[in-house]
């Protein structure tokens, strides 16, 4: 299969840098376009029951500050990643808010992505069973091939 659109899920971790390297190499060899996607954390606002980026907040002001910080953090991480992409590869980046698995899979579907490349954090045993893994959930839910980079 010839890939024309590759999505690299990127969070700045060591595993995501490995995924970026693999996605970059595949894009370089196939001529595919590359998209780097950063998904912000969700934050629960207990008083109102809403979900917002960041963690847990106690006020709307805290949520707004957390959203600004998370957006800035995402931009910083993606800028570092873009610096490692072959300049001959057509590359775009996006920062989205939401559940990582749902957001990655939804983006891939809506943008006709041919391949998702994602890092593996390397959890094993009970921790892997208890916490689950974004990469495992993406493999289970994606409609596209998924390359999990170790």
Give a short overview:
By secondary structure, this protein is of the alpha/beta class. Helix content is 44%, strand content 23%.
Key traits:
single chain, 150 residues, alpha/beta, Rossmann fold, five-stranded parallel sheet, two-stranded antiparallel ribbon, 7 strands, globular
Poorly predicted regions: none
Average pLDDT rating: 84
Proportion of residues in β-strands: 15-25%
Q: Specify the CATH homologous superfamily.
A: HUPs
* Main structural class: alpha/beta
The secondary-structure element order is: EHEEEHEHEHHE
CATH T-level fold name: Rossmann fold
Rg from Cα: 16 Å
Cα end-to-end separation: 22 Å
Assembly type of the shown chains?
A: single chain
Topology:
Layout: E1 5-9, H1 14-30, E2 33-40, E3 43-45, E4 50-52, H2 60-82, E5 91-97, H3 100-110, E6 115-119, H4 125-131, H5 134-141, E7 146-149
Parallel strand pairs: 1-2, 1-6, 2-5, 6-7
Antiparallel strand pairs: 3-4
Q: What do you see in this structure?
A:
The chain is of the alpha/beta class. It has a single domain, classed as Rossmann fold (3-Layer(aba) Sandwich). It contains 5 helices and 7 strands; from the N terminus they run E-H-E-E-E-H-E-H-E-H-H-E. It has helices at 14-30, 60-82, 100-110, 125-131, 134-141, and strands at 5-9, 33-40, 43-45, 50-52, 91-97, 115-119, 146-149. Strands 5-2-1-6-7 form a 5-stranded parallel sheet, with helices on both faces. It is globular and about 50 Å long. The mean pLDDT is 84.
